[in-house]
Amino acid sequence: xxxxxxxxxxxxxxxxxxxxxxxxxxASPSSLNDPLDGDIQAFLTEEDQLHTYDDLTKVNPxxxxxxxxxxxxxYRLQVFYTHAxxxxxxxxxxxxxxxxxxxxxxxxxxxxxxxQEFKPHVFxxxxxxxxxxxxxxxxxxxxxxxxxxxxxxxxxxxxxxxKYYATVAASSSVDQxxxxxxxxxxxxxxxNPIMEAFGNACTLRNNNSSRFxxxxxxQLDSSQLLVGAxxxxxxxxxxxxxxxxxxxxxxxxxYQMMNGATELQRKEWKMAHGQRFAWLPASEKxxxxxxxxxxxxxxxxxxxxxxxxxxxxxILAGILQLGNVTFSTSLDESQPCSLDEESKDFLQGAAxxxxxxxxxxxxxxxxxxxxxxxxxxxxxxxxxxSSTRRNCLAKVTYARLxxxxxxxxxxxxxxxxxxxxxxxxxxxxxxxxxFGVNNLEQLCINYANEKLQQHFVAHYLRAQxxxxxxxxxxxxxxxxxxxxxxxxLMEGGPVGVFSLLNEESRLNRxxxxxxxxxxxxxxxxxxxxxxxxxxxxxxHFTVAHYAGGVSYQIQGMVEKNKDPVPPELxxxxxxxDVPLLRHIVSGKDPKDQSTKELSKVTxxxxxxxxxxxxxxxxxxxxxxYTRCIKPNPDCQPMTFQEEQVTxxxxxxxxxxxxxxxxxxxxxxxxxxxxxQRYGIIGKHSGSKSGGDSADHGLTGVKEACQExxxxxxxxxxxxxxxxxxxxxxxxxxxxxxxxxxxxxxxxPMLHLLEDRRKTILSRCAFTIQCCWRRYRRRRHRCCxxxxxxxQAAVRSWLxxxxxxxxxxxxxxxxxxxxKWKTLLKSLAEAELDDAKxxxxxxxxxxxxxxxxxxxxxxxxxxxxVTVRGWPMGLALASAPSITVxxxxxxxxxxxxxxxxxxxxxxxxxxxxxxxxxxxELASIRAQxxxxxxxxxxxxxxxYADRQPDLKSDVTGFNEIxxxxxx
Length: 966
What we know:
With 966 residues, the chain is an alpha+beta fold. Among the domains are: 442-544, Methane Monooxygenase Hydroxylase, Chain G, domain 1, CATH 1.20.58; 665-686 and 700-784, Single alpha-helices involved in coiled-coils or other helix-helix interfaces (Up-down Bundle), CATH 1.20.5. The chain is built from 33 helices and 23 strands. Strand 10 (367-372) and strand 11 form a beta hairpin. Helix 10 runs antiparallel to helix 13, helix 16 packs antiparallel against helix 17 (513-524) and helix 28 crosses helix 33. The N and C termini lie far apart (121 Å).
C-alpha cells in the first residue's frame, strides 16, 4: 500500500484526550474529486490550515473532497459550526458542550455590531433573522428551517433557537413587567419538554427522535419583543403506541411514568414494581430524556392543573393496560375470540383507569357492528380483528390526547392577534428515514423532506440563478440536483403514488398488496424515480429520493392510509367518567359525518394538505437554513466517517449551494426601496448629486437606476477616503451590481451601506439632540429665573408680614412685663428697708438688755457696731474685727435672719443652721444702702414658679429671691 492510500479518515473510536482516532482506509471513490486533481492536492497540502476556513465559500477549489476535509479538520478541533454561503452546517458532537450555548454567549452575539464577524454559530442565524424583522424597511416574517437526517441534531438545534429568542427578545422589555416577561419565556420553553415527552421516542438512529413535525411561531410585537408563540404539528406517528419496531422504544412519556412514579401513583396507575408491559420494550434502558419531574414541572408552568394531570396519566396507564390484553382464536367462528384470565385482569384494569364499563369494553373489542340500512348486526371478530380494534382504541386515544395537549399549549402561550405583528418560525421536522422495513410513515416523512429540499432548491439555487439572468447579470449556471421528478412521482396528477393509494383506500374491499403493486407498476413505470425488485417475496417499490433510494413495503400501507376508527369505540369513550377523555373525543364522532366525507379523509390526504399549508407559510417568509450533519451512524462522540458525511453533503446540495453563494448576490432590493432606505447617504454626504431624488417620486426605472449608481459612487468615494484604499471596477462588481429593476448586493456591501447609514443617522440624531437640549436648557433657565423672582417676592412679603407680627407681639409682651416688674418692685419696696428710709430715720436707741443680748464683743474693738437691718448684717457678719450687733423687728424678719445665718450662741448651747443650704443658695449680693438680694438656682418659696399675673397674691420678697445668676 503506497502513501496515497493512507487517508486521514475517522476511525471507530477515540484516541487519548478524546481526540478522534484515524485509521487506514481504501482510497475514496474518484467521484468525490472533480477534474481539478492538481488544485485539490495543492489545497490539501496545507492540512494544518484547513480548520481556519469558517466559511466554505473561501475554499478554492470547491469540491466535495475539499469541503469534506475542511469539515473534518474543524470537527477534530471541536469546532462544530461552519458557514456554507447562505447555509449553516452543524456537525453533531454527540456530547454535551454547555459553554457553547450559555446565556453569556447568547448576549455576546446579540449585542455584537456585526455578528457575522464572530465564529460560526447557530446564534448568528438566529440573530440575522431577528434583525431582519427589526431592521427591514417592510418587516417580513422569518423562518428557520432546521433539516437533516434522523440523529443529526435537529431537535437540539431547534431547542437552542427557542432559548435564544426567549432570552434576547424578552431581556430588554420596558413596556411589560418582569413577571410577565418571565412567564412568557418560561411557557414558551416549557412547551418543549412536554412536546418531546409525548412526541419523541428512541429509535435505532437517535435516542430522541421526533416522531412528529412541528412548526413553532415565536410571536413578536411592534417592538420585536416576544409576546407569545404557537405550535403547529404534522403527522404524529401514533402507530408507535401499539407497534414498536425491533430494538426501538415507545414514546418517552410511558417510560417517564414507569421510572418516576411514586408508590401512591404506582398503586393508582396499577404499575407494580417489576410489572412488564407489552407496549414498553427496552424498558430497562435509561435515557436522559426519561425525566418525569421535568415534565410535571413544565405542565404546572403551562397551567395544567393537578387534577387534569391526574386524568392524563390515568389515560396513559389505561393504554398500557390495553397492551397486555391478548386474544385467542375461538373454536366456534360464530362466537367471539376468548380471553385468558390474565388478559381479563388487564382488561379490567384498563376499564377502571379509563372509567368505562369492562363488559362494554370487552364487547367493543370482540364484536363489531355492521349497518344494513336502518338495522345493525353484531358480528364476532377474529383474533386479528380484535387485536386491530384494541390497537385502534389505543392509537386514537393517544392521538386525541396529543392534539388536546397541543391545543392547550397554544391557548397558554399564544398571544392575541392584536398584540403581535410579526413572527419567527422554527421548523423541526423528521429527518430523512430509511429503515429495514419502511411503510406509510416513512413515505410521508421522506415526502416532507423532499418538499423542503425543493423549497431550498427553488429559493436558493434555481430562483437566484434565473433572477440573475432576467436582471441582466453575467452568469454561468451551476448544475444542481433537482428533485422535481421524485415529487411528481408521489404527488403528481392525475396519477401518482398518493393518488393511487387513496383510490385503493376508498374501494369497499379488502386491500391486496400484490394488486396495488401491479397497479403502481402499470401506471408509474415511465417515471425514472421508481423501481421494483421482481425477485422480492414481499411486494414493495423503491423511490429514488434526493438522499438515496428507499424501499417501501406495500403490505399494510392501505389499511394505515384508511386509519378507520370503529364508531363503537368512540361511543364507549364518550361514556367514560373521566371528563378529559370525554372532552378529547367529543365533537369528532364518526357518526356525525357522512360515509362519503369519511371516505375522502385519508392519512395521506390530511398530511399532504397540512404540508401544503406549511409550504405556503415558508414561501411567504424569508427562510434561513441550517443543515445538521450526522458524523457517524453509531452516534459516537468525536467520530467522523467520511462516507457518512459525504452522502449527506451530496444529498442536501451543500457544494452547489457554496458555488452559487460564492459567486452570487444574496441580497436583492428594488431601486425604489433602495433609495428610500439609503438615499440619506447621498443627501448628507456633501455631494450635490445623490439623495435628492429619494425625496421625490421617480417616474422611470432608468432614472432610478441612475440615482442608485450616483449613490453607490458616493459610498465608494467615502469608503476610499476613510480607508485610504483604492477599489477598482472589478472589486465594485464583486460587491454590488445594478440590474434592470433591482440592486444586487453582497453581504460585505450590505454591511458597508448599513454602517454608512448608521453613521449618518447617528450624526443627525446627535444634531437633533443638541438642538433639543439647547432649547430645553434655555427654557429651563428662563423658568428658573422666573421662579427665582417669584420666590424672592413671596419670601420678602412673608418676612415682612412675620416681622410685623413679631413687632406687635413684642410690644404687647414688653408692656405686660413692664407692668409686672413695676408692680413687683412696688411690693418689694414696701417690704424691704430702703436707703431713703435709713437716711431719714434715726436709729432708735437700744435698751441695755437688748444691747447685752444682741451684741457680740470682739477684743480689739471697744465699742460694738450696731447694724440696722438684717440684710446688711449678712454681709458684715464675716468681718472678724467688727463687733456686729443685729436687731430685727417683726417675726418675718427675725425668721429670715435666723434662716440665713449660722449664729452660734455665746454659751455654745444654741446654734442656728440655714435651711438655704439644702435649697441651693447661690449667692448674697449687697445692694447700696443696706439692700440685699438672695440669688437661688431653684427657689424654695411658695410662689417661685408662678407666671407674672397681676391678679396673683405675690410679695416683693419673692421677686427678690426669683432673680437668678444663670
